[in-house]
């Protein structure tokens, strides 16, 4: 006899995909693959005997009937989560911390230090998410949001924990091929840019009185971690934030060819919703970040 309800996994996949308008974003939220989401949605469509989405290039759009279906089942998931929090294991829930930070910062600064936090707080599960979503959109989903600053957002407590500066960096192999004795020597080099940071090179070149310098070539990447990786691979010179290239400089993967000047940069800050600011676990993690930032600054 046919079950009265479809698979809960299929319903979760449908609810997340419909709410976010994307199988990819639903997969990230539910910590599964894009293919798993697509398969669960197809299973639900087969169970219902009707399509739920119109598939487009990078987005999915609910059919009118599916939109009405989502409006009815969506609140049920919120009720289920609330009931689970009330009658589940409160200690386990309270020892889970969700942190959202930019991808390059997470990869190059946070993750290499996170083991120190885990070593002293093995009972705390830290869930790391990476994005550049606006802070206000993450209020319910995340406990601690790390972004540049200092900025002010209504309903949030902001605290800086890490300062940095930017300076040219490149691989030692590149420096051996094409020595850099003065900033003017960069005319013979490739400058590595990031599309979201168009001002860093012009601002630094203005500091060294070379605003009209024309390099041999320019390469532009859409993600900053790709720009830094290109520098490590000897493809050119990047403007490296001191915090994010510190480990590369220490191990010799990158070198800073000039003593100065350094370009001031925004600080990294924690943004915590007012209603969560007094949570002991959140305060514990924020204090650890500030201690790590102080240790980096005094190193």
TrEMBL record:
Keywords attached to this entry: DNA-binding, Transcription, Transcription regulation
Pfam (any one): HTH_1
Keyword flag Amino-acid biosynthesis: no
GO MF terms held by the record: DNA-binding transcription factor activity; sequence-specific DNA binding
Gene3D superfamilies: Periplasmic binding protein-like II, Winged helix-like DNA-binding domain superfamily/Winged helix DNA-binding domain
HTH lysR-type domain segment(s): 6-63
CDD domains with a match to the protein in the record: PBP2_GcdR_TrpI_HvrB_AmpR_like (cd08432)
BP GO annotations: DNA-templated transcription
Family classification: Belongs to the LysR transcriptional regulatory family.
Protein name: Transcriptional regulator
Native source organism of the sequence: Caballeronia fortuita
